[in-house]
């Protein structure tokens, strides 16, 4: 069973301009396991955003492989990649990227529809639950302009989380927020990771975010280095667990993963997903379900 949410294998990125070749990533090897919160730091221009775009299948590596939740996304067709990305990867950007003329609820429903596996009714039900989880119950029918920056970022997080992706990738998620909103968003991120078991990778300059990490990486000179943990993560976990009702979120997460399992199986019966991809996706989903069930039984 696949316990690795993200694997980068010897990933290179060389940008070509008219006059030169710029090697930005030089053979990156990185494994993020399910349930980890990994932070990637590094100087400006070191390739953090490039790495995140490649990990999320938004950009192709010049060489090497990207494996998300057991599926190698490196050589998929554009059509397959779009659907896999929607099911397996959630993105949160600095600028929220919400669609202006859709309500909060509709924004969260969009990626669910893009997965090609959820019905309209399932998408609506999941989107409602997600907005409740991020503390935005009652704001479902508001448009982005009617929400504060922090609330918009929470909609963006609900949207990223809705399809129960194997991994959420965040690029400077608090970059455009004031201190108060940033701290609310950070608490949410920490809570989703610790209590919800969501795997998250964050690219940031913000040392406060780095304090949340279970693993910290630095990019420099095209290479990646892991910094040994220095903070006492166990204390942070205790703090978060104390503030959430025991088992409730895990049960909700399990419910959502089971809806996804049903949706995947019916999509496969209708021939919407190839057997190879279905097989890899089921393995990853079953590993996540088993992990949660074990946790709930404790
Ligand atoms: N499409 C492109 N064509 C050519 N060069 C590019 C392209 N995209 C990025 N680069 C270069 O690649 C390098 C890495 O850029 P990237 O945005 O990944 O860095 P970063 O670490 O995220 O920077 P910052 O912290 O400032 O956001 C930079 O030198 C940038 O100029």
UniProtKB/TrEMBL annotation:
Keywords: ATP-binding, Nucleotide-binding, Transport. The keyword NADP does not apply. SUPFAM superfamilies: P-loop containing nucleoside triphosphate hydrolases. SMART domains: AAA. One of its GO terms (molecular function) is ATP hydrolysis activity. The keyword Endoplasmic reticulum does not apply. One of its GO terms (cellular component) is membrane protein complex. Residues 6-246 form the ABC transporter domain. The lineage of its organism: Archaea, Thermoproteota, Thermoprotei, Thermofilales, Thermofilaceae. CDD domains: ABC_MJ0796_LolCDE_FtsE (cd03255). This is ABC transporter domain-containing protein. InterPro entries: AAA+_ATPase (IPR003593), ABC_transporter-like_ATP-bd (IPR003439), ABC_transporter-like_CS (IPR017871), ABC_transpr_LolD-like (IPR015854), MacB-like_ATP-bd (IPR017911), P-loop_NTPase (IPR027417).
């Amino acid at each position: 069973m696949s316990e690795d949410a993200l694997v980068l294998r010897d990933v290179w990125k060389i940008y070509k301009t008219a006059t030169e070749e710029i090697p930005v990533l030089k053979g990156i090897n990185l494994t993020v396991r399910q349930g980890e919160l990994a932070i990637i730091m590094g100087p400006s221009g070191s390739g953090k955003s490039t790495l995140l775009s490649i990990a999320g299948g938004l950009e192709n590596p010049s060489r090497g492989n990207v494996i998300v939740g057991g599926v190698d996304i490196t050589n998929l067709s554009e059509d397959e990649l779009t659907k896999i990305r929607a099911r397996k990867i959630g993105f949160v950007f600095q600028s929220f990227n919400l669609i202006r003329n859709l309500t909060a609820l509709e924004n969260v429903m969009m990626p669910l529809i893009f997965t090609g596996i959820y019905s309209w009714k399932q998408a609506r039900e999941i989107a409602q639950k997600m907005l409740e989880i991020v503390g935005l119950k009652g704001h479902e029918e508001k448009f982005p302009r009617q929400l504060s920056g922090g609330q918009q970022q929470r909609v963006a997080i609900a949207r990223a989380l809705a399809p129960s992706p194997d991994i959420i990738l965040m690029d400077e998620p608090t970059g455009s927020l004031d201190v108060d909103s940033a701290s609310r968003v950070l608490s949410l991120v920490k809570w989703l990771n610790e209590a919800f078991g969501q795997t998250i990778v964050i690219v940031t300059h913000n040392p406060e975010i780095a304090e949340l990490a279970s693993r910290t990486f630095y990019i420099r000179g095209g290479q990646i280095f892991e910094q040994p943990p220095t903070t006492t993560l166990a204390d942070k976990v205790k703090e978060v667990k104390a503030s959430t009702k025991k088992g409730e979120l895990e049960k909700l997460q399990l419910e959502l993963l089971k809806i996804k399992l049903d949706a995947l199986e019916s999509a496969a019966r209708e021939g919407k997903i190839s057997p190879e991809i279905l097989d890899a996706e089921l393995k990853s989903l079953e590993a996540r379900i088993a992990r949660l069930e074990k946790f709930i039984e404790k």
